[in-house]
Amino acid sequence: MQGRILFIDDEPEILKAVKFYLEDEDFEVHIAEEGNKAVQMAETLQPDLIILDVMMPVMDGIQVCRQLRARTRTRLIPIIFLTAREALEDKILGLEAGGVDYITKPFNNQELMARIKAHIRHSQEDISSHPVTGLPGAPTVEDDVNRRLQEGEIFTAVFVSIEHFREYREAYGVSRSERLLLFLSRLLEETVSELCGGECFLGQPAYEEFLLLSPPDKTQILCERAIDRFERGKMDLYMEQHRQRGELTYYDYRGNLIRSPFINLSLGGACNAHRFMATYSALAEWGAQVLLKARSQEQSAYVIEE
User: Fold this and answer.
1) pLDDT of 126 over the 70 cut
2) Helix (H, G, I), strand (E, B) or coil at 25
3) Which has more confidence, 72 or 142?
4) Under a CB-based contact definition with an 8 Å cutoff, are residues 140 and 76 in contact?
5) pLDDT tens sequence across 39-49
């Protein structure tokens, strides 16, 4: 398979024809005829590329694109606009909304294919994502933070860590530890979506560590709500025998009995409102120090510094 494509258009005949052509070229193709459904499908499917018609009822392609760019899991997916309009103003509007290319109807199938392949290849070369959660990885996180710092934006960088993750993985294995990462990523995504939407950024610069960028006035409630949801849901990730014992017990590879507390969530927030930060590296170093203070409380906790 060459890639997964989500094709959004309100004309069934065009959907059918393009789907047939792309599937014949060994692409996995999913279709949607209206914007709200398309946004939901994009979050679920995580396609390699989206082909989006501009002129659609209810929610037009520009609005769909803006919604996709405002969501963590879809903000980096390349979008090619497809439309009958040839006006330069329309093309500029689409590109400013977050599209990477623009093709007018009627179009040549070979040209469409060439553009699809080029943008998928470019996306895969330039954008890293976490192998389990699909969140933006270290290079994208660093680029986003550096851009915000260079533009003089005031924000709080919240570094998020799962305490006792290593013991959990040793006891339950890779598969269940990946479920834990997915649980936390979904929890953080839902919290971000509810409280600040497109104002926030969520990434995963390390395998078991997350980074949340938020407006300073929303950081505290974000941390509180994330911890509350984590505490209410974390016990479902444990076997009944461990829940009854009140701790995780297992034998390591040497045969030693290991006792471990249940997982906790630590959040360390560093706000650049009163301290100059020039680079992601400097901010990450400060954030690591704040995170240590949250970890020292030996329970799910957050600490925020300015």
Assistant:
1) no
2) coil
3) 142
4) yes
5) 999 988 889 99
